[in-house]
Amino acid sequence: MSDFSLWIIVKNLLWATQWTILLSLIAFIGGGIVGLILLFLRTSQVKWLEVPTKLYIEFFQGTPLLMQLFLFFFGVALFGIEVSPWMAAGLALTLWTSAFLTEIWRGCVEAIPKGQWEASASVAMNYVEQMRYVILPQAMRIAIAPTVGFSVQVIKGTALASIIGFVELTKAGTMINNATFRPFLVYALVALIYFCLCFPLSWYAKRLEGKLNVAR
Amino acid sequence: MSLVSIRDVRKSYGTVEVLKGVSLEVKKGDVVAIIGRSGSGKSTLLRCINGLETYQSGAILADGIEVGGVHANLRELRRHVGMVFQQFNLFPHLTAAENVMLAPTVVNKTPKKEARAIAAEVLAKVGLSEKMDAYPSQLSGGQQQRVAIARSLAMRPKVLLCDEITSALDPELVNEVLRVVEQLAKEGMTLILVTHEMRFARDVGTHLVFMHHGKVHESGKPKEVFAAPQTPELQQFVSGIG
Description:
The complex is a heterodimer.
Chain A: H1 6-42, H2 47-62, H3 65-75, H4 85-110, H5 114-122, H6 127-157, H7 169-180, H8 183-215
Helix pairs in contact in A: 1-4, 1-6, 1-7, 1-8, 2-4, 3-4, 4-6, 5-6, 6-8, 7-8
Chain B: E1 4-13, E2 16-26, E3 31-36, H1 42-49, E4 57-62, E5 65-66, H2 74-80, E6 81-84, H3 96-106, H4 112-125, H5 141-153, E7 159-163, H6 171-186, E8 190-194, H7 198-204, E9 207-212, E10 215-220, H8 222-227, H9 232-241
Parallel strand pairs in B: 3-8, 3-9, 6-7, 7-8
Antiparallel strand pairs in B: 1-2, 1-4, 4-5, 9-10
């Protein structure tokens, strides 16, 4: 017991936290890029683009993230492709994030008055130009708060990657507990670290929301 | 040859037929005022001309371009057919000049500097030279609508469609917008206006179209039509307005 001073536990957890942060960043940035592409397809009013996008979103929103991780980790291996926990976790979280961000952003796009679409169409702009120059600049303003809010879900979602053997904060906690047999202390510290990561973000999201309400 | 040719156009929303075979020819330089009760189909007709609404049968040709059909070249059409809306629909995140410059730079690939010159020119035309860098929220309704007109003019349209462009304005702001439209008419711009401004329709219009129940009920020279309406519906409509 005395081998594991509090400091060593904290140090190891903090070391693992960097992988939680990195995985979150990958999922959030990757999910943001994929989500933006999907957003264009989803709001295109072109049926054969919209329907597959909708199915994609339904799949990732309608199944547990844990199942998605399993599917990527074990499923892809069936095709003879070796998947590292890193790859599986990064990919599954990216796609999962993209599905939710697309839906959040679609709501923001749809909140822009129809007149903006009609006016921009009337000066001969095409769909991509309308989105790029007229709709998204306005939608982005209202999207910032819920997007930052959702980043909290992404950070917490990375905890599930521990189950496929990805050593991030939660997995590190489990490993340290196996060595120290002090579950309450270890998991309380793990939770505290998650809280320290998430709270500033949700606080910031709330503040952004408030700011926006004043501006209106 | 007609600049805009509307032939037996029919449109339904579900089972409700809102346009029941409308035909109309508009020549270059014409100022056509479309009047009628709400629900008579006049706004729908106007929105069909630049493809904002689809129609089920008939044909609309604007500047020789077919409007209907799946493969209609709406982009090419809309470069020549401008539209001004009742609610202005300015882009709130852009200044007056940027509102005007956007389509020339994005659609026509006009260089920024040149587009800025176009913006200065058309904003001067609507009397808003000193508001180039103002955002829509800093402008009055009348000023916003004039920027919207300038935004359309920047594309050098051959026809300008005006959909009740003074209906959302406070009474004291109506005239500044009408004066701009009158000036455009004088310069030979082809205009199709859906309007409730009867005096304006009579004084500035070259043609008057009275729509009733989805059809052109009566049409002709504005002064003649207003002086002696032929149908009881128009008589009632004109007298109702006083």
